[in-house]
Amino acid sequence: MSNTIVTHVYKWIIDNVVENVKKDFSSMGVEESILQxxxxxxxxxxxxSKVANFQKFSVNEDYYAQPTYDQxxxxxTQDIINQNNYQFAHFNxxxxxxxxxxxxxxxxxxxxxPNQINxxxxxxxQTDGTNDELTTEEIDKxxxxxxxxxxxxxxxxxxxxxxxxxxxxxxxxEDLNYDDNINSDLDDDDDDDDDNDENDPEHLILCQYEKVTxxxxxxxCSLKDGIINVNGKDYLFQKATGDFEW
Amino acid sequence: MTxxxxxxxxxxxxxxxxxxxxxxQGSLIDPQLAMKILHQFDLSMAEALQKNVRxxxxxxxxxxxxxxxxDVWTFVVINPNFRFENESMVANKIKVVACAGKRANxxxxx
Lengths: 246, 110
Description:
With 246 residues, chain A is α+β, with helices and mostly antiparallel strands. Chain A has nine helices and three strands, in the order αααααααααβββ.
């Protein structure tokens, strides 16, 4: 199955990249530990993407078995915590209204970079009740801001709906339905796809074509060197054929 | 060897760009080094696909959209049916992005 080789091939790519950029790291005066951290973070992200079974992905299983803060001196860990507290102080005054999570939660994160942890903390929804460090007034302010934001968003959405209705009316025009010109139905479809590109976890094949032929409405494609991402899994192929009816 | 930036959109490529983004934000590496790493990824990916992958696949479906622009084919296929060597699979929709894989194009570019 072409899914089982994904683990091996991705591991090979990561190792190959790391091996080849070693000289770039040293020529730019970047420490080797940064390179190791880079590899660790990349591998972690690939494993978390769950596009294949990565159980035997890393030789250094220890990296994932124990939280990385154990590898750092106690002082460094303390720094991370301090920086997180500093982040909280900012947080309460800022426009973000999501209550911050506890520092203890963040110190168990796998990634050891303080900045990275901070950037993540803003995305972690708090699930363990309200933050005890906030006073009642502060909490009230946050709630008020949240309500205002919600209202604003609703109003924006209303505005969008109105403009979309205009667009749909245009499409009902018979002339546009039956030609392939710019701004016709075909073009609209394309545009919609592009808009969804970044948001949809869409199924995707990235590859190279050798030959694309068409006889009437039947299309035939010879493809090579491809990565298929479908239903959350990756598949690789050396050669593939695509037969479509338009 | 033909190498494309196309594969940066794959799962392993996105994992890489996310990692680099975070490390640039954390001032651990500078963007110049990140660009070098990405370029190396393009090379390594091309080599991996050409040397380490021997699988064949096929898929059929209803072609919803086709586009050929700047030597890149894009197809949107509805209800594709995949055949891998000992597995088959369906999906509701798949987008195919294909760059030119011919040797002729390679020489033209160089």
